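Review session, final week

We close the course with one last complete record, chosen because it touches almost every idea we covered. It is YubB ferredoxin-like domain-containing protein, a protein from Borborobacter arsenicus with 170 residues. Go through it on your own first, then we will talk.
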Amino acid sequence: MPNWVANTVVVRGPENEIGRFISKCFHVERCHDDEDNNADELELDFEAVIPIDATVLDAAAGAGDRDTLYRRHWGTKRDALDTAIIVRRPRYLHFEFITASAFPEPVYRELGRQFPQLEFNIAAIDPGAWWAVTGRIVGDDAVFDENADCRKVFERVYKQPFENALQADT
């Protein structure tokens, strides 16, 4: 079972580009809640950012090597999970999602290339393995700090002081 990595992303830029980003990179997923209500939710879709040829994917699946293929293309062995749009207003989008065991650096870099007018500020943390990454991507310019301060990133991602999380565990 993988460690889960929480990713939070703030996107700033022209409104039409944010709209294009949402239209291209998110898909609608039909969800079913505990009360048998259907709801449509947007889910970030790595396949929409970095497509993988179906024949290559089928071959990898047949060889039992799909996770390796995903890691090579997306930087993580699964697509984004549990996407949540936190804030959406003109020229601004804040969303969060979870990945398995790693942060999707190739996906972030490709988003910069596909949407050069947008600025992506990211923070990712694996609290189980205690590592964190922050980054800023604009066009081809992508800067990542893979030794980011875990406490600060924890507070940014989980919106609570790290000490509160420790108290909850006791």
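Two points worth writing down before the exam:
Helices lie at 15-25, 46-49, 54-62, 66-74, 105-114, 150-158, 162-169.
The mean pLDDT is 90.
Good luck, everyone.
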